[in-house]
């Protein structure tokens, strides 16, 4: 159960112990992390679970697929090189201590 | 302890069709789930309850063996859960990607819209339902599916016949016959273009289906195209009219969006919150469950009234008002969960960025008619069925 650190837009942090069979979005919703809407509940169709991921973990996070990549162009908050849809990122043990920044708008 | 769903018997089906919002409010204020006799369905109307239901598809299934949708259309992905749904959904995904919409579909839809508005410009007055919204929705859906060109009325009639058939709980023989006839017409239209799409991969939905890995079986293609026709024509049509109506009735907001075109997406989202084109869709309860204090027995059909949730005053202040400047809040007009509307991005682009902006830009001094007020109808599907307007020709 790696610990994921969610950082809200106002800087407040929230540490959540995450089961490895889940997506970051599912972990966030389960723990009631504010700022992640996830209207489509993981279908990569709504772009409302957008987060910024720590590039140090990119090897474990993986790359966005073609569909997700296009969806990321339509996020409410600015897309950066660290942007991913959190529903498409699966938790692995090596994500211990990883920081996930939640944008100010979805 | 959870108690049984309360029952409302003094509401008529006509009440629901003409103006469901007072009924929705009464249900919302009564309990999380209420059996409404006129609808023959247990209705769920609060925003948070619908959101939590849509996050629990194992308990609240889209699959229903008795579904009329499946009887009329065949094995559609709209009435499946989990992996069976996801495979079909993934197959059509390439046609609906935001980038594909922007680069491929938007220019085509802009052309259709220019033609339609160009043709009615000199008339000085029109009913926007038949003069713009219905042909626009039909012709663009035709292109997107990958059908050969046909009169817009044909696809619109097929769509209506399928919808009527799927809601034909009284088993009216004529409605059944028309739905079957529409189904046969659609099967033939698919057959006519399938070889072409197989040989020439392109962004159309039929092409995505035949080139999916694995390719979609033909009976699923037929069923899913029918769902897309039944569910992909009314909604953009009604959203075009609702957004137009909202702005025409609120001139200050209209002036704002005309002065600041970057506000169009906000205006669009508010329009479909205000009068959601799909007002209700069903789910089936798979095990005895407590929904926020109401006991729902296994097997019961519930109607998720997103049209009611989008006017839930627990979430939206003054929910009955069209107010594009209300605080940004997500709504349920596109549903939630795995069945979240596949056409979300195409409708945002078509309705909110192409059709309605062009309408206000090209028809100057567009206004409602005092002598012919708009008519809005429906509760399962809701929108203006007539929107007579005038402009300075």
Q: Helix-strand pattern of chain B, N to C?
A: EEHHEEHEHHHEHHHHHHHHEEEEHHEEEE
- The N- to C-terminal Cα distance of chain A equals 27 Å
Strand content of chain A: 15-25%
Widest β-sheet, arrangement of strands of chain B: 2-3-4-10-7-5
Can you offer a commentary on this structure?
The complex is a heterodimer of chains A (about 110) and B (about 400). Chain A is built from 3 helices and 5 strands; from the N terminus they run ββαβααββ. With about 110 residues, chain A is of the alpha+beta class. Chain A has one domain (about 5-100): Roll (Ubiquitin-like (UB roll)), CATH 3.10.20. Chain A has a 5-stranded mixed β-sheet with strand order 2-1-5-3-4. Chain B has about 400 residues and is of the alpha+beta class. Chain B has a single domain (about 5-390), classed as Cytochrome p450. In chain B, about 55% of the residues lie in helices and about 10% in strands. Chain B has 16 helices and 14 strands. In chain B, the strands form 4 sheets. Chain B has a 6-stranded mixed β-sheet, sandwiched between helices. In chain B, strands 1-9-8 form a 3-stranded mixed β-sheet, with no helix packed on it. In chain B, β3 and β4 form a beta hairpin. In chain B, α7 packs across α8, α8 (about 150-165) packs across α11 and α12 (about 235-250) packs across α13 (about 250-260). The model of chain B has no long low-confidence stretch (mean pLDDT about 95). Classes of the chains: A alpha+beta (about 110), B alpha+beta (about 400). At the A-B interface, α3 of A face α5 and α6 of B.
């Amino acid at each position: 159960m790696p610990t994921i650190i969610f950082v809200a837009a106002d800087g407040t942090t929230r540490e959540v112990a995450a089961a490895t069979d889940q997506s970051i979005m599912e972990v966030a919703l389960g723990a009631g992390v504010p700022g992640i809407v996830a209207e489509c509940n993981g279908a990569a169709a709504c772009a409302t679970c957008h987060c910024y991921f720590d590039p140090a973990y990119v090897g474990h996070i993986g790359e966005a697929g073609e569909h997700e990549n296009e969806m990321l162009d339509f996020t409410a908050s600015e897309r950066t090189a660290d942007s991913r849809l959190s529903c498409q990122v699966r938790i692995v043990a090596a994500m211990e201590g990883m920081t996930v920044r939640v944008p100010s708008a979805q | 302890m959870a108690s049984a769903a309360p029952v409302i018997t003094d509401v008529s089906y006509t009440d629901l069709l003409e103006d469901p919002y007072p009924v929705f409010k009464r249900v919302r204020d009564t309990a999380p789930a209420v059996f409404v006799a006129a609808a023959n369905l247990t209705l769920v109307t609060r925003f948070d309850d619908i959101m939590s239901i849509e996050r629990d598809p194992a308990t609240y299934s889209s699959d229903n063996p008795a579904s009329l949708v499946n009887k009329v259309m065949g094995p559609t992905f709209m009435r499946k859960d989990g992996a069976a749904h996801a495979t079909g959904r993934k197959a059509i995904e390439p046609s609906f990607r935001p980038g594909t919409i922007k680069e491929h579909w938007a220019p085509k839809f802009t052309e259709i819209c220019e033609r339609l508005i160009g043709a009615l410009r000199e008339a000085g007055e029109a009913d926007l339902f038949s003069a713009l919204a219905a042909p626009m929705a039909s012709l663009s859906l035709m292109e997107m599916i990958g059908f050969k060109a046909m009169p817009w009325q044909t696809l619109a009639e097929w769509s209506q016949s399928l919808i009527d058939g799927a809601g034909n709980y009284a088993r009216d023989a004529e409605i059944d016959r028309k739905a079957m006839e529409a189904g046969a017409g659609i099967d033939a239209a698919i057959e006519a273009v399938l070889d072409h799409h197989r040989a020439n991969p392109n962004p159309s939905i039929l092409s995505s289906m035949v080139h999916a890995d694995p390719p979609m079986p033909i009976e699923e293609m037929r069923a899913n195209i029918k769902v897309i026709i039944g569910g992909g024509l009314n909604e953009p049509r009604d959203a075009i009219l609702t957004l137009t109506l909202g702005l025409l009735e609120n001139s200050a907001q209209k002036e704002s969006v005309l002065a600041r075109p970057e506000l169009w997406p906000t205006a669009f989202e508010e329009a479909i919150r205000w009068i959601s084109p799909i007002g209700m869709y069903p789910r089936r309860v798979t095990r005895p469950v407590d929904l926020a204090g109401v006991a729902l027995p296994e097997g019961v059909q519930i109607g998720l009234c997103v049209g009611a949730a989008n006017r839930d005053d627990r979430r939206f202040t003054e929910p009955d008002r069209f107010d594009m400047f209300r605080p940004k809040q997500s709504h349920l007009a596109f549903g939630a969960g795995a069945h979240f509307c596949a056409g979300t991005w195409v409708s945002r682009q078509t309705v909110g960025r192409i059709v309605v902006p062009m309408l206000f830009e090209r028809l100057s001094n567009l206004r409602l008619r005092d002598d012919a007020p708009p008519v809005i109808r429906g509760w399962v599907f809701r929108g203006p069925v007539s929107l007579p307007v005038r402009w300075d020709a």
